[in-house]
Specification:
Elements lengths: L2 E9 L3 E3 H12 L4 H8 L5 E3 L14 H27 L8 E6 L8 H9 L6 E6 L6 H15 L3 E8 L9 H5 L4 H12 L2 E10 L1 E2 L4 E2 L2 E11 L7 E6 L2 E6 L3 H18 L8 E6 L4 H11 L3 H13 L6 H13 L7 E8 L3 E10 L1
Parallel strand pairs: 4-5, 4-6, 13-14
Antiparallel strand pairs: 1-7, 1-10, 2-3, 6-7, 8-9, 10-15, 11-12, 14-15
Helix pairs in contact: 2-7, 3-4, 8-9, 10-11
Amino acid sequence: MTASLVGAGHALPAPMGQQALWDGFFRHHYADARLARTVWRHSAITTRRGVVDPTREDVSGWGTADRMRRFQQEAMPLGRQAVAAALADAGLDPAEVGMFTVVSCTGYATPGLDILLARDLGMPDTVQRLHVGHMGCYAALPGLGAAADFVTARQRPAVLLCVELTSLHVQPATQTARSGKPTEEDLQQMVAHALFSDAAAAVVLQPSEWGAGGRPAAGFQVVDVVARTDVSTSDHMTWDVTDLGFKMGLSPKVPDVLARHARPVVEDLLARHDLAVGDVAGWAIHPGGRRIVEVVGEALGLSEDDVAPSYAVLDEVGNCSSSTVLLVLERLFARGTVQDGGHVVAMAFGPGLTLYAALLRRRT
């Protein structure tokens, strides 16, 4: 018995044009520094989403407590919309949910989203809940693995929700950034502020044999989930809690590390199921940035069509941390190009430096 992904949904805040963000806020924020302009120009993003539009509301001087209160306020309607859409896509009543997993690295409160959304959506008061916090961009996949394990062991449905509101964590520019002579730390903030975006994304999992007579659940079976962490590069990607919100550390060496590990991780995952890279019908690669998609695609020998869903999400939405790989999966599913029995690999990357990969199989 396995778990199958049978429904998906998302909710996005208002769109913000990438160029408008630069012209209306970040150009001044970084004193029109040449390096910042270059970072923005090479972001491969047209539109981002944000509960906070910095051209209208500057939160860079806010304390962490104010940012957390705003997180709860903004995350509730987005999470509710995303979960409701995923349940509707799966044809499942909230009262049938046995486990509700919520993933976020951008906001915390207790009672949290897991409790409040379960209440508002009409999940039973016996629903089991799991919060996956501060793991970063790859967290959707360990969340998926935990939910799939519950479904397989308990034979009850589960919902996974990722909610990330990175727009709440704009950092103040340092004097060096404003002077036009940024330090390496300034560059890391420029890259983060040029890439990150807000989104809520949810998926529903059911036992692969479900309903009267144990009929197969149409969707994508969760076949396997694997991880690899290169602790020797743990300083390459960080997410620190500060008095002024959460601060990203993002080394330019990250793509090189991913290029070194991506193929061995995927080959090990596929070999466990007598598969090879060429047997995979669809790819959902977390678009942490343009260069990350490039190096992972090159390492795996993927075509432009293979990585098109990742680039499309990056261009139209941006990097929404843990929510992003679920948005790519949803877009890949909507293409309808994976046939019955075909396999999909989802990959995401984050602090550690950690790579996660999941193998899914289509069932119709």
